[in-house]
Design goal:
By secondary structure, the protein is of the alpha/beta class. Helix content is 44%, strand content 20%.
Length: 431
């Protein structure tokens, strides 16, 4: 008896399933029954032609594995129930897997549903295996790091050198973070008189990458800063995830001025650390690195003066010893020859000593003048005498911006000579 098409059977299946037991018992036996092979082929067509099942991601725990010469067979178990599915990775695909199958571990697998007609079973033919949870995050981190590294974003040859004595420093961080206060305090202690600009950014959460990249772009557009500090006061791995974002990494790598990363963590190295020109572990360390200590400069200057004096004295003493040796030698010559030779030698030595002393004195004088001029530029009174003024609020604090000021506030202005008290009439804006 010829078999009918499975599709024909499918059209009447719903109606027949709804028949009662008595109807089934009294009905004649149909001549459209499927063979086992026909039913299996029908199920195979349903599963393998389903677009959703041609490429499907499945997550679960590996409960058993069986290595075979044709591939590796394993069972994937639902971690929240008792459901299981049989899977296979064929031998040609094993070397392409991103993770090794381990019993008891959770994985994210990609594959397609295939039917095995000989046993009437279906299984998942796996193409790729990824670790689930933190393992998946680590894999994505490695993939992004490798891709950016291949582009040269972390190359040491592209790192910019920090300026030795910057006068304007930009800081990208949250204005409410402790890191901002630490940086301000450290810079004020080490190098008073600096201009420190805050380009405020969100440094945690989903909006942080765009905010940080935008803050760096604002610093470049402003054009005043000579170096930039990207900072945050530490946090958990989740809190610091924005510093592994590709947008932040590219903003750092393409920044036209040197960038110091002081994110405040010591355990893990972020991609922002790798892209920065210099990386330190804390915001305070970044502030200490960006400028030298003014007290240290004074000590170095004094040490150079003392070294110069010691060198001159040592040279003078050496020349005196040589002169005494020559005098002893002259005593052995006839008096006329001795006097004549001594006059010439003495004249030569005197001229040489004068030239050496003049040269060293000029060098020392120039160095002293240069350092004096640098120190003069840091003198607050000198700044005031050039036409600038220091504005203080009623409680005596320095006013650095219009934030917090109101009309009719009384302010005290210190000039180069004298002080005046003024009343605030109008706030014109930030610039």
């Amino acid at each position: 008896m010829p078999e009918r098409s499975p599709l024909c059977y499918r059209q009447n299946s719903t109606a027949r399933m709804m028949m009662s037991d008595s109807q089934i018992a009294n009905s004649p036996i149909t001549d459209t029954a499927l063979s086992v092979g026909g039913l299996t082929e029908y199920i195979q067509a349903l599963l393998q032609d389903d677009r959703q099942l041609r490429q499907v991601w499945v997550t679960g725990e590996v409960s058993s594995t069986n290595a075979h010469r044709s591939g590796t067979f394993f069972t994937l178990r639902d971690t929240e129930g008792n459901a299981t599915i049989r899977c296979v990775v064929w031998r040609s695909q094993l070397e392409k897997l991103a993770a090794d199958l381990v019993c008891g571990e959770q994985f994210l697998v990609l594959g397609s549903i295939r039917v095995y007609p000989a046993r009437g079973e279906y299984q998942l033919s796996v193409w790729q295996v990824l670790p689930a949870g933190e393992g998946l995050q680590a894999l994505r981190y490695r993939q992004l790091r490798n891709r950016l590294e291949a582009e040269g974003l972390f190359d040491a040859a592209h790192k910019k050198t920090l300026p030795p004595h910057p006068q304007t420093i930009a800081v990208v961080t949250s204005g409410r973070a402790a890191a901002w206060g630490d940086i301000q305090r450290t810079l004020k202690q080490r190098y008073p008189g600096l201009r420190v600009l805050l380009s405020e950014a969100i440094v945690q959460g989903d909006r942080a990458p765009d905010s940080i990249a935008g803050a760096i772009a604002r610093v470049e557009k402003d054009g005043r800063a000579e170096v930039l500090i990207l900072s945050r006061g530490g946090g958990s791995v989740e809190d610091l995830a924005c510093f592994n974002d590709e947008r932040v990494v590219r903003a750092i790598a393409t920044c036209s001025i040197p960038v110091i990363a002081g994110i405040g963590h010591q355990r893990d190295e972020s991609l922002a650390d790798l892209a920065a020109d210099v990386c330190v572990h804390t915001p305070t360390a970044a502030a200490e690195l960006v400028v030298p200590s003014l007290e240290g400069l004074r000590e170095e200057h004094q040490a150079r003066i003392e070294a110069l004096a010691a060198t001159a004295n040592a040279r003078l003493e050496a020349e005196r010893n040589r002169l005494r040796q020559l005098q002893n030698r002259l005593q052995k010559l006839s008096l006329d020859q001795q006097l004549d030779w001594e006059r010439k030698e003495l004249k030569r030595l005197r001229q040489g000593l004068i030239r050496a002393a003049r040269s060293r004195w000029q060098g020392a004088t120039g160095q002293c003048q240069l350092l004096s001029e640098k120190l003069a530029t840091l003198d607050p009174q000198g700044v005031l005498s050039r036409g600038y003024a220091a504005v203080r609020s009623a409680n005596g604090e320095i006013v650095r911006s219009t934030v917090g000021l109101q009309e009719d506030d009384v302010l005290e202005v210190q000039l180069g000579e004298g002080r005046i008290r003024v009343k605030l009439i109008e706030i014109l804006g930030d610039k």
